[in-house]
Automatic annotation (TrEMBL):
Superkingdom: Bacteria
Gene Ontology molecular function: any one: xenobiotic transmembrane transporter activity
UniProt keyword Cell membrane present: yes
Membrane-crossing residue ranges in chain numbering: 20-41, 53-72, 84-106, 141-165, 171-190, 223-244, 256-273, 285-307, 313-338, 350-371, 377-397
PROSITE patterns: MFS
Taxonomic classification: Bacteria, Pseudomonadati, Verrucomicrobiota, Verrucomicrobiia, Verrucomicrobiales
Name the UniProt record assigns to this protein: Multidrug effflux MFS transporter
UniProt record similarity statement: Belongs to the major facilitator superfamily. Bcr/CmlA family.
InterPro entries: Efflux_drug-R_Bcr/CmlA (IPR004812), MFS (IPR011701), MFS_dom (IPR020846), MFS_trans_sf (IPR036259)
One GO term of the biological process aspect: xenobiotic detoxification by transmembrane export across the plasma membrane
SUPFAM superfamilies: MFS general substrate transporter
Species in which this protein is naturally found: Luteolibacter pohnpeiensis
Location of the Major facilitator superfamily (MFS) profile domain: 1-401
Length: 406
């Protein structure tokens, strides 16, 4: 197993403390919490705001994807902590704007601002891991972070459902503002993992040209597109499941959170397993097996839905095995992608995150266009994109591309 890289500066403030991993985990969980906590409220919000509520997810993902393209080079030039602090302030402002919104246009606009801040959390967390640890150790740390960050999507829908018992959906966004404020003060406990001697001395414009270099890096793009395709499927479930579970299968808003939590428990379990497996097998092998399992589960799910067989139980089981593979795919893809480009880890993390979370735009638009009142649309989106992710990890395809490149 690779040993962790040495600390990149002799300054004692650069050494990760006891709170390093927990804070990074919550930063990575920002995206999940920002969306998952109000999932039980989506049917009610659609009625109150008289619009397509999936657009609140689309708006968030547009802001999330676009902002990372800027924050990546910014963090390579000015360090990790400055963009994180600015981002958390924007998140709090956006959350308060959402809480005060009474129209669909207003809340979608504030969701974009909220996302501009929220995106710094997972992006900076991934870059800090790459700053501090080598490839295999980074995969183990990322798997550990996923175990901790999985608390957010478990607690989020459950908490959102309980808030709706005593208040309205507006209170959910006030709650997010409070969480953002706590995280703003917590980030002062983090070290600066990107010291002055490692920072880019290029202009921001030159730094943006790093994206062209990354897009031309076949190995980096292979892993990035793998997790991107997989997350199209993930967001199809996240955005589509409230209507499917609550409206189609008549699950209560409070019980919806438990069905969502089942999948996250699976993710946590496989993330724990992944921490061991990355020390025994190479990352490509783990990705090949996990994407294959995900694809198989998704295809079986689609068949069951088309045959109208098994009802809610068939959907829950199919989603469980597809979603749980996130414990392997996200951590291993990220570690493998960033390992090739340590000198521009911030830009690489930003591009990866932009494509990964921006992929949800595809999911929400497809759900809006084809309808999400039944499980069919959600299921075929999941099946198609998990298949694409699995194909990317096939050795014959990768070897052929390398021969063509040569």
């Amino acid at each position: 197993m690779d040993k962790p890289l040495p600390i990149l500066t002799e300054s004692p403030t650069a050494k990760p403390g006891k709170m390093f991993i927990p804070i990074l985990a919550w930063l990575m969980g920002f995206t999940s919490l920002s969306t998952d906590v109000y999932l039980p409220a989506m049917p009610t919000m659609q009625s109150d705001l008289h619009g397509n509520v999936e657009l609140t997810v689309t708006g968030f993902l547009i802001g999330f994807a676009a902002a990372q393209i800027f924050w990546g080079p910014f963090s390579d030039r000015y360090g990790r902590k400055l963009p994180l602090a600015i981002g958390l302030i924007l998140f709090v402002i956006g959350s308060m704007g959402c809480a005060l919104s009474n129209t669909m246009i207003a809340i979608v606009s504030w969701r974009i601002i909220q996302a501009f801040g929220a995106c710094t959390g997972p992006m900076i967390a991934r870059a800090m891991v790459r700053d501090t640890f080598a490839k295999t150790e980074a995969a183990r740390v990322l798997s550990g972070l996923m175990i901790l960050m999985a608390i957010a999507p478990i607690v989020g829908p459950l908490l959102g459902g309980q808030i709706l018992v005593y208040s309205t959906w507006h209170a959910i966004f006030w709650f997010l503002g409070i969480v953002g404020t706590i995280m703003f003060f917590s980030q002062f406990l983090l070290p600066e993992t990107h010291p002055l001697q490692r920072r880019s001395d290029h202009s921001i414009g030159q730094a943006f040209r790093n994206y062209l270099h990354l897009l031309g890096n076949a190995r980096f793009m292979r892993y990035t597109l793998c997790v991107t395709f997989f997350y199209v499927a993930v967001f199809a479930f996240i955005a589509g499941s409230p209507a499917v579970y609550i409206r189609y299968f008549h699950v209560s808003e409070q019980n919806y959170g438990w069905l969502f939590a089942v999948n996250v428990v699976g993710l946590m379990g496989f993330s724990m397993l992944n921490r061991k497996l990355v020390t025994l097998f190479n990352l490509d092998y783990i990705l090949r097996i996990s994407t294959l399992i995900s694809m198989t589960s998704a295809i079986v799910l689609l068949i069951m839905v088309l045959l109208n067989f098994g009802g809610l139980l068939a959907v829950v089981i199919g989603i469980f095995f597809f979603f749980a593979m996130n414990g392997f795919i996200a951590a291993c893809s990220t570690a493998a992608a960033l390992d090739d480009v340590p000198e521009i880890a911030g830009a690489a993390s930003a591009l990866l995150g932009s494509l990964q979370y921006g992929s949800g735009i595809v999911s929400t638009l497809l759900l809006s266009f084809f309808g999400n009142e039944t499980p069919v649309t959600m299921s075929w989106i999941i099946a198609i994109f998990t298949t694409l992710a699995a194909l990317l990890m096939k050795p014959w395809l990768w070897n052929r591309n390398r021969r063509l490149a040569a």
